Amino acid sequence: MEEKHHIVFICEPGQESGAAYAYSVLAESDESLLETARRAGVALDAPCGGKGTCGKCKVRVLSGSVSTNAHRAEAGISKQEFEDGWRLACVSCPQSDVKVSVPETARAYQSRIKADGQFENAAFTKLREKLKPRGQAPHGGVKLVNVDLDPPSVDNPSADRERLLQKLSETNRVTNISVYALRKLPFVLRESNFSVYCVLRQTRPDEFTVIDVFSTKEKPPVIAGLAIDIGTTTVSALLVNLSDGDILASGSTGNAQIRYGADVINRIIESSKPGGMVRLNQAITECLCHLIAALCKKASGMYAAVTEGQIYRASVTANTTMTHLFLGVNPEHLRLEPYTPAFFECGPLRSDLPLHPEADMLIAPSIGSYVGGDITAGVYSSMAFNTKDISLLIDLGTNGELVLGNNEFLISCACSAGPAFEGGGISCGMRAADGAIEACVIDANTMEPQIKVIGREGQKPIGLCGSGLIDIVGELFRAGIINAKGKISKDGERIRRDEWGTAAFIIALSNETENGKEITLDETDIDNFIRAKGAVFSAIRTMLAMLDFDLNVIENVYVAGGIGGGINIQQAIRIGMLPKLPSDKYHYIGNSSLHGAYSMLVSREAAETIQKTGATMTYIDLSTHSGYMDEFVAACFLPHTNGGLFD
Ligand code: FES
Hints:
Helix 9 crosses helix 13, helix 9 crosses helix 14 (604-616) and helix 13 crosses helix 14 (604-616). It is built from 15 helices and 26 strands. It is an alpha/beta fold and 647 residues long. Strand 21 and strand 22 (503-508) form a beta hairpin. It has five domains: 5-106, Ubiquitin-like (UB roll) (Roll), CATH 3.10.20; 140-215, Ubiquitin-like (UB roll), CATH 3.10.20.880; 225-373, Nucleotidyltransferase, domain 5 (2-Layer Sandwich); 377-419 and 529-646, 2-Layer Sandwich (Nucleotidyltransferase, domain 5), CATH 3.30.420; 435-516, no CATH class. The chain is 27% helix and 24% strand. FE2/S2 (inorganic) cluster (FES) binds at residues 46, 48, 50, 52-57, 75, 88, 90.
């Protein structure tokens, strides 16, 4: 029998963890360090799905030997780094006992993403204001009431259940008690001298069921709800007090499925491998379990104690593939002609997440194979469905999705923008987390950049997120450092060319960064970005052309997506990503999918409207639309082959 090797993964300290921690596991000689790390519970970023091309799974071998025997410049490992022990975990197998250092930047699962900044808080305050005049109850149909009962006696020996229902019916139409609540009822009633709190869930417009009971000897429990947005790259969630709609805690984390591929196509391929469906479902479930526990802890540190068992209602928004994988439904047919999902809608469900056993989970409906519930929810939160004015919603996530319309019609499509806006396919790209460059200005004479970094004061940069990328490409173009094809046309201290002549712009020197590694943007990155922005612009043009609409019919453009600290609209227009419209027509609305999930959670009426929106929106498959490819090719220049569109 072949000898197994002892592998130790040492996770470098991050800002959240504060200390290094280690995992050890046994591995065979033909198992990659990426696979071994997964078994050990260390989730490494693997956007290319382990093909050795993205360079994100870079780890450092501290001792022992592994199978890779050459550096891989194309995947971001230079000769010097190779000599220093850096390897791609996905193509390196252990040949002896090995000790591996895992940098924080390689960890998909643990990375912390900014989700509760000032922008998000202000956005939720605004959303709640919008919900009020629509007559929406803040509790989403779950509420806590206090009732005092007469104890049973010889003259009144009715059963506990009937006694409670009769009393409750004096103020609410309560017709039933769940089995869970029924099992607790006799003990809680007697322990509290027949004075109890009841958690009621609305089952019809004027009808409720008791789903939990508590003794009044304790403080009234918080009745919590959970809104979740499952993005392909990032998962965000809110813990909400259902009695008033207040947000108790918010947070985000990387989608742990990223270790199986960066985009939905790679995830679908993985799901069709033996055991793949279970792996993907487990990855997202574990990821959410950690996030829910973290939110409860955060809320309990600031407000009253909240446990997972106090979450009585949940809502989920996600793209079509993520919804399938979250529910454990095989998404295979989404990528096979005629591209049919297993479902668009599903009613309230019980989930596998650690919530109250009676908690309802609502899922936002999908519209097509590549336009999902995140978009129907986003349309709701933008209120684009509710005005006569024609609006355009652009959601920049791991893919780009667009909706055009008003209160009479809505059409939607997806464009294959790729993951560039969330840092994928960009050598120094990263999600909008601490250490991400989110904005930049470049001096046209000296070529010196001035950057703005997400994080605490003094935070040094680690990489580039979507908003930073848009800014830097815009600034490089404005300063004449890159030409219309995205090629670097100047030389200087900030420009480096490799042995094959590929040029790179140095955004931060090694002594200016958090991890001592230069942050650069090379011509391959710029090329990837130009294709991403070209996909967005050509989708807008195609939708308008299909309806025979002029650009000027658009009254509002809502730009959504957690790509950083907002988006510099002027830069996005300069590079030909967004159409040239007056700047007051543009509104950056942040994570509209999470805002929609919040609306579904706190408002039954919002949840119904989102269902109706999903059922009436038209989905267009751009890949089958003649003219789209021509538009795309024309848009793959800065700003466009038809410069007149941006004069
Ligand atoms: S290079 Fe290893 S996962 Fe992409």
